[in-house]
Amino acid sequence: MNNSRIKQLYREVILKHDREPVNFEKWEDAPIIIEAHNPICGDRFTLYLDISDGIVQKASFHGYGCAISKAATSMLVARINGKPIVDILALCDQYKPLLDPKAPEPEGIDAELAAFMSARIFPARLKCASLSWEELERYLRDVGC
């Protein structure tokens, strides 16, 4: 995918999720609360989850950060609602190479996720794009869901 297409996706997808995040709401009594914080840039998001029978029954998030980190968290939450943990871990595995400047461009990835390849152009933004994804993946692998 060429740089102009990546920049177009950035404008269409990332800025849209930044302005209109999916399930952007506090859920103080959520069964699972995961904190994602990048002390270098100050991005801070809280993921709220309800997982039962190996499936995310409900997910939301709240917090603040740059457009990339907020959009990445919004897209993550949008994609995990109603999904089995095994599918979410597979999604995380598909997402990681998008952010790796040394990895070949993944084939068959949908356009919304491909928008985050823009972080390859701005290496300082790689952590922004991966912050919430990494924390969720770490939690799911650590607790053995």
Can you offer a commentary on this structure?
- Helices cover 50% and strands 17% of the residues.
- A hairpin with a 2-residue loop joins strand 2 (44-52) and strand 3.
- The longest helix is centred in the C-terminal third of the chain and has 18 residues, at 126-143.
- It has a single domain (3-143), classed as Alpha-Beta Complex (Sufe protein. Chain: A).
- By secondary structure, the chain is of the alpha+beta class.
- The protein has six helices and three strands, in the order αβββααααα.
Blueprint (SSEs and pairs):
Blueprint: H1 3-19, E1 32-37, E2 44-52, E3 55-64, H2 67-80, H3 85-99, H4 111-114, H5 118-121, H6 126-143
Antiparallel strand pairs: 1-2, 2-3
Helix pairs in contact: 1-2, 2-6, 3-6
Give structural attributes.
145 residues, alpha+beta, Sufe protein. Chain: A, 3 strands
- Per CATH, the class reads Alpha Beta
Strand content: 15-25%
Based on the structure given, which CATH architecture is correct?
A: Alpha-Beta Complex
Identify the strand order in the major beta sheet: 1-2-3
Total strand segments: 3
Q: According to CATH, what is the topology?
A: Sufe protein. Chain: A
Cα-atom radius of gyration? 14 Å
- Low-pLDDT stretches: none
Anisotropy-based shape = globular
Mean pLDDT: 90
Number of helices: 6
Q: What about the largest sheet?
A: 3 strands, antiparallel
Total of domains: 1
Q: How helical, in percent, are the residues?
A: 40-55%
- Alpha-carbon distance between the two ends: 35 Å
Structural classification: alpha+beta
SSE topology string = HEEEHHHHH
